[in-house]
Design brief:
Layout lengths: L11 H34 L2 H5 L6 H9 L3 H5 L3 H10 L5 H13 L7 H37 L4 H5 L5 H12 L9 H8 L4 E5 L2 E5 L6 H17 L1 H12 L4 H28 L3
Antiparallel strand pairs: 1-2
Length: 280
């Protein structure tokens, strides 16, 4: 028991922020699942609308389908009515809107079988309000997360990380927490988060595998950050391309990056934390 360290709970704000971030990720996944279900339903009777709107998780897309849930309905609408609708939803690219109207007027029905159209149309009318509700929920969570994250004195450290951005920076912050004594080295958080691989041996056999028992959301946070940092960090991109040239698989490269790059950021973060605490 002497080898075990006591883990003290973090502050109320940090724990609340951590829970909100995890809930947000689940709601976003619900939105993705629902968007895919709507897409599959539209392909049964009204696939043209998927070409008119590339982004399916927007108010514009939802309101369009609520107003015109079938091709027959939208073809009856006047050009100016459609143009006014698009303008009211801040779609102000005239060429794009003109192209949409032209495609609407020239569109051919996938099927005229009411036995296919009517049940799928009803299903869209059921699913779209659910998607709008999820979009509003994500906005509510984003607002709450932003307000709580702004209260953290060390947020500038995490905002400065390459590729962190407004979504990942709070997630990386709660991954480390506010107690800078909890992790003494990068190796400790790598093991806790499930980044460090597990090596097993039995007799003459020895193998390495992914760590199964770990906080999955925490590990996914680091993996997503590794993927984003390649776009914004010169050395991360150079390391990625170097390993890729050696034949390393794309997904495994993120783990290699985290095993090698996380220590650099932790050491730099400790130095910045020390300077901030001493008002240097």
């Amino acid at each position: 028991m002497d080898k075990l360290d006591v883990i003290w709970p973090d502050s109320v704000n940090v724990r609340a922020l951590s829970q909100l971030l995890e809930y947000r990720r689940k709601v976003v996944q619900d939105r993705v699942d629902l968007s895919n279900r709507i897409t599959a339903t539209l392909k049964n009777y009204y696939p043209q609308v998927l070409d008119w709107f590339k982004e399916k998780d927007t108010r514009l897309f939802c309101d369009f389908l609520e107003k015109w849930p079938s091709l027959d309905a939208v073809k009856k609408a006047r050009k100016q009515t459609i143009m006014n609708f698009l303008k009211q939803h801040h779609s102000r690219y005239l060429e794009v809107n003109e192209r949409r109207v032209e495609e609407i007027k020239s569109a051919m029905a996938l099927t005229e079988d009411l036995g296919v159209i009517e049940p799928n149309k009803i299903m869209i009318e059921v699913l779209i309000p659910q998607l709008k509700c999820l979009l509003e929920s994500i906005e509510r969570l984003d607002k709450e997360i932003k307000q709580r994250y702004k209260k953290q004195s060390e947020r500038k450290i995490f905002d400065s990380l390459p590729g962190a951005g407004p979504q990942l920076a709070p997630r990386i912050f709660v991954a480390f927490g506010s107690d800078r004594t909890r992790y003494q080295s990068a190796n400790e958080i790598q093991k806790y988060a499930g980044i460090a691989p597990v090596i097993e041996q039995s007799g003459q056999k020895k193998w390495t595998h992914w760590r199964y028992s770990c906080p999955k959301f925490l590990r996914q946070t680091f993996v997503e950050w590794a993927g984003q940092s390649i776009r914004y960090s010169f050395w991360a991109r150079a390391y990625y391309e170097q390993q890729l040239s050696k034949g390393k698989p794309h997904n495994r490269l993120f783990v290699h990056w985290l095993l090698n790059g996380l220590e650099l950021y932790i050491n730099a973060g400790k130095q910045i934390h020390l300077m901030m605490s001493q008002n240097i």
